[in-house]
Design the sequence.
């Protein structure tokens, strides 16, 4: 169980990935993202998660540079966008992302969405980048069980991570069981359901009992479920607040109460039915 902000899970290839990080979805390129990244690194975060489609890789790279923390102490993730999927085009998109980030290597590269008829070729490209040592770990995002089965069938390398929408209203128990079975680390995007859970009664009651915020309770629930989590924030105090989740523990009963909030409800697109 994660004891502090620097604690890591070990991916199936031996790479250590922090349990907790900063997501920068919808964080504006320029000073907003540069500041978010710098504040997070100052607060002790080691992991930053971006994507080509977020349009803020340059700012993330700048924030990393300005933080003054040695590159090898950080864990940086980006993702190949749907329009760039396919073998050659993925390799090209990777080079483009690396140029924007200003990095020599990447810690984790993900396929952003399972684009039908393309994600297998995209996966081959990720395997190539991995074998060439340009990426320390490779994985997928928004993959359902059948997508994972399909990739694994022909893959040389099983994905190391699957980053999906995950929060108390979308607990993804079957998907998590499948991932555990195949040593794929589950990672949560939108862990706070874009703020929609902050006035939930069950969560509020649990939060009050621990003297914590609802957000802190949810992030703690992620970690106790052994799910990597990357909440996004552009406010300095919130970036710091999100880290005070290591000094309390949810009971088995509280964990079950939170699990009981599941409604299979998404705030993001359905991975089986998206058109972008």
Sequence:
């Amino acid at each position: 169980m994660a004891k502090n902000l620097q604690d890591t899970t070990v991916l199936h290839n031996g790479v250590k990935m922090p349990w907790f990080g900063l997501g920068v979805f919808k964080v504006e390129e320029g000073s907003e993202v540069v500041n978010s990244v710098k504040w997070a690194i100052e607060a002790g975060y080691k992991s930053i998660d971006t994507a080509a489609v977020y349009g803020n890789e340059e700012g993330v790279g700048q924030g990393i540079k300005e933080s003054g923390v040695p590159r090898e102490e950080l864990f940086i993730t980006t993702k190949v966008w749907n329009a760039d999927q396919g073998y050659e085009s993925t390799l090209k998109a990777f080079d483009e992302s690396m140029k924007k980030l200003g990095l020599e290597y990447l810690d984790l590269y993900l396929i952003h969405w399972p684009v039908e008829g393309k994600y297998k070729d995209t996966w081959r490209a990720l395997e190539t980048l991995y074998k060439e040592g340009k990426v320390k770990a490779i994985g997928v995002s928004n993959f359902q069980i059948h997508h994972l089965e399909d990739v694994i069938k022909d893959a040389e390398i099983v994905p190391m991570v699957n980053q999906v929408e995950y929060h108390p209203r979308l607990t993804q128990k079957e998907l998590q069981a499948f991932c555990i079975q195949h040593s794929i680390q589950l990672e949560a995007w939108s862990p706070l359901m874009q703020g929609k859970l902050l006035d939930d009664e069950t969560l509020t009651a649990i939060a009050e009992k621990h003297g914590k915020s609802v957000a802190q309770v949810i992030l703690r629930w992620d970690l106790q479920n052994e799910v990597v989590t990357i909440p996004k924030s552009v406010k300095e105090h919130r970036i710091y607040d999100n880290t005070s989740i290591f000094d309390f523990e949810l009971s088995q009963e509280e964990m079950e109460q939170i699990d009981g909030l599941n409604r299979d409800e998404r705030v993001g697109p359905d991975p089986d039915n998206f058109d972008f």
Remarks:
- The longest strand covers residues 135-141.
- The two ends are 37 Å apart (CA to CA).
- Residues 87-101 form the longest helix (15 residues).
- The mean pLDDT is 97.
